[in-house]
């Protein structure tokens, strides 16, 4: 008999096939993408039923199953945004919530803590599936040059679908963290940048690398980047203060959200080139470690301010130095 984990791994493989197929300009490839996604989505139902009926619910399955779901759904939503079916900023909260909560669940499985599946989570996943379907039919309508007003109707359903998916994703996240003890788990995941701060040695470097990955993953315009960065800084200061108060340590080593926002300051309104990425990372880590020009004095500030502001200033210095280097190299933003 087929093991449920085999179906989960199979779904992960199918999930990686869907984005390139749907991005292809050829109608036949996009038609094939529909069946790839359908088979993958059905395998999500099948492996759960099979695991329960055959009593093969394993810790490995508990970890792999949500990862497979997120790769499939986020891959589809991401490629649709990349193709211009809806704005990128509309899907960023979905990505953040899904990855964030999934990592918390995986962490709980590793700690042998049980987090039961919730109805809101199932409704959220179903809403995402429906949204992906609406977007697919609109994309195929474009490819087949479907006349108006039918194409307009499909476009409207496409937007309604992603907005509904966004709302349900955020609402289910709110319900998730409302349960007892989960708010504290969320704070821990946030300040450690999804547990990167617990990786062995150099936690600040791991936090900075997490920021680099975030920077590469979400290509947005300067205005959206600035607003998002401002909100992240406020969130980092608040969460760091909460975590610091609960733990009692002045600046816990595992708290790396300060390096996360600091590296994002480094790349603020600068080009996405390998030179900028590498040089910016080196400059930021240098300023963060050496702490010259009043950076160290900011650590004495109370609460989350003392944890975050020194890294923000290091990011400002790194940004200025990086701009000078890029200007000398004739690389313009």
Question: What this model shows, in words?
Answer:
Helix 4 packs across helix 7. The chain has helices spanning 4-23, 27-53, 59-82, 88-110, 119-143, 150-178, 182-191, 203-217, 222-247, 257-266, 274-290, 303-328. The radius of gyration is 22 Å and the shape is globular. The longest helix has 29 residues, at 150-178. The protein contains twelve helices and no strands. The chain is an all-alpha fold and 333 residues long. It starts with a helix and ends in a 5-residue tail after the last helix.
Features of this protein?
333 residues; mainly alpha; Four Helix Bundle (Hemerythrin (Met), subunit A); 2 domains; 12 helices; 0% strand
CATH fold-level label of the largest domain: Four Helix Bundle (Hemerythrin (Met), subunit A)
Give the C-alpha Rg. Answer: 22 Å
List unreliable stretches of 5+ residues: none
Tally of distinct domains: 2
Q: What's the helix-strand series?
A: HHHHHHHHHHHH
The largest β sheet comes out as: none
Which CATH architecture of the largest domain would you pick?
Up-down Bundle
The structural class is mainly alpha
Coarse morphology: globular
Short overview:
The chain has 333 residues and is mainly alpha-helical.
Topology:
Layout (H helix, E strand, L loop, with lengths): L3 H20 L3 H27 L5 H24 L5 H23 L8 H25 L6 H29 L3 H10 L11 H15 L4 H26 L9 H10 L7 H17 L12 H26 L5
Helix pairs in contact: 1-2, 1-3, 2-3, 2-5, 3-4, 3-5, 4-6, 4-7, 5-6, 7-9, 8-10, 9-10, 9-12, 10-11, 10-12, 11-12
